[in-house]
Structure formats: structure tokens, C-alpha cells
Amino acid sequence: MLSLNKSTNDTSITLDLLRAIAAQMVCVGHALYFFTEWRPAGPLMQNVGVLLFFALSGFLIAYTLTERSKNPAYGFWQFFIERFARIYSGLVPALIFVAVLDGAVIYFSGDPASVPSYSGKIFLDNLLMLEGYRGINLITNLHSAVFGSAAPLWTLVVEWHIYMFVGALFFMGAKPRLIPWLIPVALFFGQTSTHFLLGSVQDDGVGRGLFMLWLGGAYVFFAARTAIIPYLPAVGLTFISAVCYVLLTPPQKEYDFRTYTVLLIFVFAVVMASQAKHFITSARVVSIITFFAGYSFTLYLIHYTIFWAIHVLSPGDGTMKFICSILLSNGIAAVIASQTEMKHKSLARFLKQAATRYRAEPSEQMPPRSATDQG
Questions:
Q1: How many domains does the chain have?
Q2: What's the confidence (pLDDT) of residue 136?
Q3: What is d(CA 331, CA 246) in angstroms, rounded to the nearest whole number?
Q4: Domain annotation covers residue 171
Q5: SS3 of the chain
Q6: CA torsion 171→176→178→183, rounded to 10°?
Q7: Which residue segment(s) compose the domain that 189 sits in?
Q8: Domain presence at residue 359
Q9: Rounded mean pLDDT for each run of 10 residues along the chain, 375 residues in total
Q10: Is residue 71 one of the residues assigned to a domain?
């Protein structure tokens, strides 16, 4: 039986490590394109990082819904609060940071066109996760551009809509009494989600099938619940799948269903290997991995804006610029996340308590029932 107990196996901390690595891959990959002329012969690491995020997300959300719904009190509202706290604890400060830095770039460059789509309306649209909205936008004009230089935000919208769509479908099945309330949720958030079953965000195929990959990550969770693979074979499968993925995936062809399977096999093998052993027991090592994973989301959201500012205000390539831009992005992300993203669980607890108090207020205001009213 699959377990994410940190005291019995390495799976939980290994997933944190993969999340941290994925964020660094996106950051370093974009830095290579901004500040160097070197182009890899294999898959672009920034795209692979995005794909890893989606595969891991499918795995972890499947785990969350399956395990936490065992508590009868856990429903869509609790799921929504947890996802809201997780996403918006990073999104809000990141959007503010982007607005300030992009504004500085416009001011110092003297060119408003140096930052695309920079307006209050687009900022609000991005806050509401409407950029790139698919489906009924033709009727309601909900579609919006990505705010300013925050290019990575397009993937976050896809992720958020998948969360809400899958969550609504899950609880419609688990708690049928919620169906009338959750049908509108599923219809609204299903527009973008279902587009990315087979569709892409651009004509060149970028983003193709991200929801399908996400569902593949969820399938990995269900497969891992019953599978038992010894440590050495699992490590071997991890290595073989990683090598095959690199060999089979040419640059700019990462969003390809044919290679998604290999990537999912890699994630499955990593989970199986980490289930079999408990090597990562050092508190220092665990804290380091947790730290880097703790600001990975913020790094993902803001690094591109930092690179863009450097690129506009100080054009040119260089190894030092490449290294310093990565270090600067990591440092700023860690500082911001220390007071925001890293406290998303506290925010979720606060919101749940506030919601509980709000729902309890009407009954607390009612007069006590008399003895003859009991039963």
C-alpha cells in the first residue's frame, strides 16, 4: 500500500526534491535562452520542468482527494480552500512583484512597449485566472492575455482549472447531494481543462495535452497503490526511462503524447524506488530539500520577469549574467516565499476556521430549544 509517511519511506521528500528540481530546470532553461547562445541538442529543460510539474500535480491531487475524502467532513469546500491557499499564497505576491518590476522597466527604459499587456484590467483578469480561458469566452469575452512579462502564468491557469474541474467531478460522485451546486463549477472550469486533453496553447503545439499528462500522473498514483517493485529494479527503471526520454525527445518537441508515457514511467519508477527504502533520514538534508521545494512555486512565477528586466535594461549575453540572474531569482523567490508560499498551510487553516465560524453563526444566534422541543 502506497504511503507518503516521511518516517517510513523516502517518497514524500523525493517528490519535494522533484518539485524543486523541476522549478530549477525551468529557471535555468529560460536563463540559457536569455543570456547565452548555447542551445541544447536534447529536450529543453524548461519545458521538461513544466511537464514534471503537471505529472506530479496529478499524482498528488489524486492522493489528496482519495485519502482526505475518507473523512466524511471533507468535501469540495475544504478541497477548494486548500487549493486556493496553495495557489494564491504564491500568485498574489508574484503578481504584485511583476507589476512593480515591470513598471520599473517601463519607467527606466522609457518605452511602454517594452512590457506587453501591462494594464489594471489584465492584472485583475490574471488574478481571477482568466488568461487563456477557453470555451465560452466567445460569448462572455472572458479570455485575457498574460499580465506583463509573467509568461509562465499560462500554465498556472491550466493547473487551477484542472483542480476545480477534477475536484467538482470527484465530489459529484462522492457526495451526490452536491451535484446541483457543482455542475456550474464543472461546466465553467471544464472549458479550459478539456481543451488541454488534446489541444495546445499555441499553434506550434506548446502545452499540448497537459490535462492528459495530468491524468497520467493521477493514474501513476493508483498504479503505485497496488504495485510492489524491489528497490534495484525500480532504480534501474528510473535510469532507463530517463535515458529513453532524453534520447526520444528532440528540442521543442517536448509536448508530445509519445514521450509523455516515458515521462510517466519515470515518475512511477521514482515513486516505487522511494517506497522501497528510507535513506534520506538526515534532518539537515530533509530541511535543505524542503527549503528549496518551499519556494519552487514562487521561483517559477517570477524568474521570467527578472530575466526580462535584465534583458531590457542591460542587453547582451554573458556567463556572469547567466549565473547572477539565476542566483538573484532564487534569492528573491526565497525571500518572498518565506512570508507567503511557505505559509500556505497556515493560510488554509485560517480560512477553514473562518469558514467554520461563518457557517456556525446563524445557529449560535438562535434561541435555545426548550425541553419539550428535544427529540
A1: 1
A2: 61
A3: 30
A4: yes
A5: CCCCCCCCCCHHHHHHHHHHHHHHHHHHHHHHHHHCCCCCCCCCHHHHHHHHHHHHHHHHHHHHHHHHCCCCCCCHHHHHHHHHHHHHHHHHHHHHHHHHHHHHHHHHHCCHHHCCCCCHHHHHHHHCCCECCCCCHHHHCCCECCCCCCCCHHHHHHHHHHHHHHHHHHHHHHCHHHHHHHHHHHHHHHHHHHHHHHCCCCCCCCCCCHHHHHHHHHHHHHHHHHCCCCHHHHHHHHHHHHHHHHHHCCCCCCCCHHHHHHHHHHHHHHHHHHHHCCCCCCHHHHHHHHHHHHCHHHHHHHHHHHHHHHHHHCCCCCHHHHHHHHHHHHHHHHHHHHCCHHHHHHHHHHHHHHHHHHHHHHHHHCCCCCHHHCC
A6: 80
A7: 11-352
A8: no
A9: 92 98 98 94 96 98 97 96 98 98 96 90 94 67 85 96 98 97 96 94 92 98 96 98 97 95 98 97 97 98 98 94 98 98 97 84 46 39
A10: yes
Please check whether residue 86 is in contact with residue 167, taking contact to mean a CB–CB distance below 8 angstroms.
no
What single-letter amino acid sits at 305? Answer: T
- Which cell is 37 given? 547562445
Cell of 195: 481543451
Cell digits of residue 167: 475536484
The single-letter code of the amino acid at 74 is: Y
pLDDT at 365: 45
pTM metric for this prediction = 0.93
Residue with cell 479570455: 143
Note whether 321 and 70 are within 8 A (CB).
no
Q: How far apart are CA 150 and CA 304, in angstroms?
A: 6
Establish if 117 belongs to a structural domain: yes
User: How is residue 142 written as a grid cell?
Assistant: 472572458
